[in-house]
Structure formats: C-alpha cells, structure tokens
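User: Reviewer 2 asked us to show a designed sequence for the structure in our supplementary figure. I'm pasting the structure tokens here. Could you produce the per-position amino acids so we can include them in the response letter?
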C-alpha cells in the first residue's frame, strides 16, 4: 500500500486488531495512546500491545497525533503539522492552513478556501460517524465562518487575502472614512486592518487573523449586495446593502455581479440559520448545552428549508447551480456539500486527507492492522 491509498478491507477470516478497529472509527487519539503503551512495553522488553520496531511505532504515533490535531480543525497549526511530513496529504494540509507569517509565499486558505472546505466536509462526516454531536455543530458553524470569502473567491482570484486585497479594491472607498460607504464603524475598521495586515509584524498579522479576518467577509458581503446590481424585492433580504457601489464591484459584467450577489445571499442565509444558531446556544457548561441528535436533525431540516426556498427572481444558486454531485453517500447533513458548492460556484465535496493519514498508519503497522475505514 502506498501513502494516500484508502485503507484496505481486511480478509473476512481475519480477526480485527485493536488498532484496526480504532483506525476504522478514526479514533486517532486512542491510537496514539495505544502506541505510547506499546512503546513503553517494547522499551521495557515486554511484549508490546502493537508489535513493531520502536522506529515504526514512533512514526505511527506521530501520524496518529497529526490526525487528531487535524480533526480539531485548528488551521493555524496546519502548516506546522504539514512541515513534519513528506507525504501527498501534507501538501493538501498546508494548502488548508492560514499562513503563520504575513508574507509567507504559501498563502494557503488566504489564497483559496477550497482545500479547507474539503477538509471541513470530511471532518463533518467523521464527527457524525463517531456520533459527536457537539463537534458536528461546531464544524457546521465553522463552515459558515468564511462563507462570504468563499463566494467572493471566484471574483477576486483569492479568498480575501490581505496581502492582495489592496490591489483588488484599489481606488475604492474600502477601508476609508468616506461617508458614501455604508460599512458600519466596525466593518470600516476591519476593512482598514485588512489592507494593512500583511505590511506589519507577525503579532499584528496574527491579531488580524484572530479577531478580524472572518469579519472581513461581512464587509465584502455588503459590497456584493448593491443597488446597481439587484432591485428591491428580487431576492431575500439578508442584511445591509450598498447604495453606492465602488468600481471594483461594478467592473465585472452584470451576469457576474448578479451571480456573486446570489451566492453571497445564500451564504448569509446559512450564517443566520438554525444549525449555526445551535452552536451559539450550546456553550456546554454546568452540565447543559450538548445538543442531541434530534436537535441537530431538526435544526438542519429548518436550515435546509431556509436555504432551498425559491427566490422571487428564480436565482437561488442552490436550485440553479447544477454542479456535479460530490457529496458523500449518506451525507451527515444531507445537502451540505451541494450548499458549499453553490456558494463557491464550483463543485466541492468531502476530501480524503484525514483518511489518507489513517492509511499511512495502517501501512506502517502492516497488513494485520489494515481495515476498511467507515464513511
């Protein structure tokens, strides 16, 4: 087996090992713990729980630890994790990261959000398979975090990258105090910070990513929904619009502008949906707040009804996009991949990055530990 292959199905007559069962369920934290025990046993010259040379066990443990961290979706650490491996999935993980330095030549999710959304859709499926209801809600919330930038990516040529944004909005009112700009004071501040985030030091850039970058999408959304593109009542009212659009918004063709407006409105419908609100209502403290499977199901049904409603002008991208289906069989939240694809304007589905790390662990430990990973 080579890195990146799906885990092989074990022969029907083979007895499952502890590692194979844990890999099949993507329980990488438990895999790492079991490998720790095996390393301690081998160092003490006892029969290890998982046989293998110390070098093999150490490498497998490093992979399991990486898989656990990727499942946590802390994209700030993805490039650091990827730097420790020379495998095909490491490049995809780096592409899903937010750069640690303001002028890092590898722009990751600032350049394109597609790899990160493929990873989030994969993690959503794994969390559902593991029946981790709170993590399903958290991941569904994260999917909405950069939805407006995902919609804008096809127009800007990047995902709101602050290093390139100044060129994209040159000559506009973006980030200025011009009274003709409808941005609120908070969005003006965000817009101004976005223009300068990559021209300063690492501390200022990190503060921008932590506190302002997701809000940049809110500012871009106002720009996309402008009165020179869409008339009153044509589409759902989802927030502030711009009566005085800048040239960077009106320069594309009317067809492109109407398409962008539609995809941004669809993104905002999701951001204000019951499934995202469920995260805000589930702080999990004092023994309360963990959403049940039924609550998640009900919230998703109401969300789907909200985002799939026909619009007055018949332009809901979810109903008109016609992208090839890249959703997983028995998708955890049916239609989520279609929704992400409609917002992006291109087909997006669950990736295989986490599963590929599991494949590498199984390959290292040998045929006795391979198993077909559940999906």
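Assistant: Here is a per-position design you can include in the supplement:
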């Amino acid at each position: 087996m080579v890195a990146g292959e799906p885990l092989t199905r074990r022969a029907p007559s083979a007895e499952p090992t502890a590692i194979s069962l844990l890999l099949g369920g993507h329980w990488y934290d438990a895999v790492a713990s079991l490998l720790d025990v095996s390393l301690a046993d081998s160092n003490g010259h006892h029969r290890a729980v998982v046989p293998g040379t110390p070098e093999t066990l150490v490498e497998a443990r490093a992979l399991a630890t990486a898989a656990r961290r990727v499942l946590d979706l802390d994209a700030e650490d993805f490039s650091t994790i990827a730097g420790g491996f020379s495998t095909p999935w490491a490049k995809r993980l780096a592409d899903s990261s937010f750069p640690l330095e303001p002028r890092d030549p590898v722009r990751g999710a600032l350049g394109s959000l597609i790899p990160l959304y493929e990873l989030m859709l994969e993690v959503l499926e794994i969390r559902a398979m593991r029946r981790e209801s709170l993590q399903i809600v958290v991941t569904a919330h994260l999917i909405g975090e950069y939805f407006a930038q995902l919609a804008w990516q096809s127009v800007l040529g990047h995902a709101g990258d602050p290093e390139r944004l100044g060129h994209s909005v040159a000559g506009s009112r973006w980030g200025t105090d011009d009274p003709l700009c409808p941005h609120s004071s908070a969005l003006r501040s965000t817009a101004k910070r976005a223009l300068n985030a990559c021209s300063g030091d690492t501390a200022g850039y990190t503060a921008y990513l932590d506190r302002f970058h997701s809000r940049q999408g809110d500012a871009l959304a106002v720009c996309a929904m402008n009165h020179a593109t869409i008339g009153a009542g044509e589409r759902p009212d989802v927030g502030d619009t711009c009566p005085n659009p800048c040239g960077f918004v009106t320069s594309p063709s009317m067809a492109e502008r109407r398409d962008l407006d539609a995809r941004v409105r669809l993104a905002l419908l999701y951001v204000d949906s019951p499934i995202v609100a469920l995260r805000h209502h589930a702080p999990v403290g004092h023994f309360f707040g963990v959403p049940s499977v039924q609550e998640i199901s009900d919230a998703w049904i109401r969300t789907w009804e909200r985002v799939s409603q026909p619009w007055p002008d018949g332009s809901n991208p979810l109903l008109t996009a016609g992208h090839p289906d890249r959703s997983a069989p028995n998708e955890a939240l049916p239609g989520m991949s279609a929704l992400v694809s409609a917002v992006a304007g291109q087909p997006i589905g669950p990736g295989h990055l986490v599963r590929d790390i599991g494949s590498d662990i199984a390959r290292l430990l040998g045929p006795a530990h391979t198993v077909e990973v559940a999906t």
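For the response letter, you might also mention the following. The chain has two domains: 18-101+353-369, 114-344. Residues 7 and 359 are 5 Å apart (CA to CA).
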